[in-house]
Amino acid sequence: MVRVRGLHKSYGPLEVLRGVDLDVPAGSVTVVLGPSGSGKSTLLRTINHLEKLDRGHVAIDGELIGYRRSGDKLYELKEREVLRQRTGIGFVFQNFNLFPHLTVLENLVEAPVAALRRPKAAARAAALALLERVGLADKAAAYPRQLSGGQQQRVAIARALALEPKVLLFDEPTSALDPELVGEVLDVLKDLARSGTTMIVVTHEIGFAREVADTVVFMDGGVVVEQGPPAEVLDRPRHERTRAFLAKVL
Ligand code: ADP
Ligand code: MG
């Protein structure tokens, strides 16, 4: 579903991604681990083209992201086309990023109506079903500020799902939460994983990676140092850098 090849990205002289390859099969969960500054967020942001790449390419479900191929040349897509592609790539941020002036239900209805031209009634019905799924049906009329961080993040996940994305990207979805609220958000992620949602999750929650990930990817210094099933990468890491990182977070 997601294919990343030879991804390079620099900010000025700083080379943040130095040739990343990644394959995420449909219905699988990939957990990305790595020290702060290793390029994890940049990787997610290039996958949905919030950042332009310098070299390499990203394809989702066989479709190049941000570019059109013609012969052996690549042409940049227009912003409108990129926005259309981005509706197929759900993104959940560390800090929820809900619209503060909209109710929970309005947060979920807005994009399907505006971007996908769904009829409002159908979008509302779908939104209510999603709120039910994340355990927040009773909060439809609340405003984000009236919710706990865990509840806001569950709304943000429901909002991402409302666009029926092909893949969901999570950038440290529990890092901003008080410890007692982490579990309720991870439970939603586990439910999505069980139902076959294709996901890439950047997180430091090793227990979650062990339980849910099909593949664990360890990044350091802008490259994938090693990847494989959790039992291999977490319990029998082959690289010293992976061992050193795990020793710190476990
Ligand atoms: P991670 O998510 O693994 O902590 P990031 O992808 O956020 O790492 O950042 C990787 C490196 O790129 C860091 O050194 C960071 O300071 C730098 N960086 C990230 N975004 C920008 C930006 N917009 N401009 C300049 N440097 C950036
Ligand atoms: Mg980050």
UniProtKB/TrEMBL annotation:
It catalyses: a polar amino acid(out) + ATP + H2O = a polar amino acid(in) + ADP + phosphate + H(+). It is an enzyme of class 7 (translocase). It is found in: Cell membrane. Its EC number is 7.4.2.1. GO terms for molecular function: ATP binding; ATP hydrolysis activity; ATPase-coupled polar amino acid-transporter activity. Its main location: membrane. GO terms for cellular component: plasma membrane. Keywords: ATP-binding, Cell membrane, Membrane, Nucleotide-binding, Transport. The keyword Nucleotidyltransferase does not apply. Pfam families: ABC_tran (PF00005). Residues 2-246 form the ABC transporter domain. InterPro entries: AAA+_ATPase (IPR003593), ABC_ATPase_HisP-typ (IPR030679), ABC_transporter-like_ATP-bd (IPR003439), ABC_transporter-like_CS (IPR017871), MetN_ABC_transporter-like (IPR050086), P-loop_NTPase (IPR027417). It is a peripheral membrane protein. This is ABC-type polar-amino-acid transporter.
